[in-house]
Amino acid sequence: ELGSSKFEWEHIRGDGEHFIAEVTLTVISFGDRQQLHVVWTDITERKRLERELRESRDRLESAASAGIVGIWEWDVVNDRLIWDKVMYRLYGVAEHDFAGAYEAFVSAIHPDDRARLADDIQAALLGERPYAPEFRVVWPDGSLHYIKTLSKTTFDDAGKPLRMIGINYDQTEQKLAAQALDEMNRSLEQRVAERTRELELARQAAESAAQAKADFLANMSHEIRTPMNAIIGMAHLVLNTDLTPRQKDYLG
To answer: What are phi and psi of 6, to 5 degrees?
Structure first.
C-alpha cells in the first residue's frame, strides 16, 4: 500500500561507530511499479541534547519538589508559557490568574527591568548568550521580590528557537540582607568620618591652646624679666650695706 512510515534505528557505520538514525520509508508508485524511497537522517546529536534536557528536567523537578526552585517552559513558536506550582508562589499569583503567555510574564516584571530583560531574552533566542539574568518582580500586593533565573534554549535544524526551559529561585532575603549590610557599612563609614572630623577639630583646638599658652608664657617671661632684674640687682646692692641680721634675712 502507498504511504510512509517513520522510525528510529541505531546504526553501525563501517568504521564501527554507532549513531542513531531517523528512517523515513515512503512507497512511491510509478505506473504499475512501486518503489520504496528511504531517507536516513543522523539524529545522534539531537537525541543527546534531548537526553541531557530530560536529565536536567529530572534534576530540576527534584529540586522543585523540595520547594527550592520553580520550573518554567516557554513554547516560543506558539507563545505558550508553562509554570509549575512553585513559579506561582515566586510571583505571588494564583494559577487561575495567569494567562500563560509571554506578555503575562512581562507584566509582572518591575518596569525598570523590562527593557534589560527583553534584551537578554532576545540574545538567548538568537543563541548569542545564555539567559541567566537577575530581575525584580512586583507582586499584586505591591511588594518587591528579587528573582534569579537560569535556562536553556533549544533550536531546530535551521537554527530557529523552539523553546526555552529554565528555573527561577527567589533571592529576596539575600538581596535585602546585602542591602542592610551595605546600609550599615555606609552608616559606619559616615560615623567614622564624622568622628575623624571631630578628632581633627579637637587636635586643632589643642594645638591652638598649646600655642596660645606658649605665646602667653613667652610674653610674660619678657614682661617680667626687666623689672625682676632691677629688683634682684637692687636687693644685691642693699645686701652689701650695713643691715641688721633680720633685714639681711628678709632681703635674702
So the answer is: -130, 135
User: Which string of DSSP letters, residue by residue, matches the chain?
Assistant: --EEEEEEEEEE-TTS-EEEEEEEEEEEEETTEEEEEEEEEE-HHHHHHHHHHHHHHHHHHHHHHTTS-EEEEEETTTTEEEE-HHHHHHHT--GGG---SHHHHHHTB-HHHHHHHHHHHHHHHTTSS----EEEEE-TTS-EEEEEEEEEEEE-TTS-EEEEEEEEEE-HHHHHHHHHHHHHHHHHHHHHHHHHHHHHHHHHHHHHHHHHHHHHHHHHHHHHHHHHHHHHHHHHHHHTS---HHHHHHH-
Amino acid identity for residue 226 in this structure? T
Asked if residue 119 lies in contact with residue 135, where contact means CB atoms within 8 angstroms, the answer is no
Residues 51-84: tens digit of each pLDDT: 877 777 676 666 555 556 888 999 999 888 888 8
What gap in Å lies between CA 48 and CA 29, rounded to an integer? 36
With 60 as the cut, is the pLDDT of residue 169 above it?
yes
Summarize pLDDT for 196-232 with one digit per residue, the tens. Answer: 888 888 888 888 888 888 888 888 887 888 888 888 8
Return the closest-CA partner of residue 138 out of 147, 149, 150: 147
Distance CA 127, CA 125 (A): 5
Q: Please state the pTM of the whole predicted model.
A: 0.49
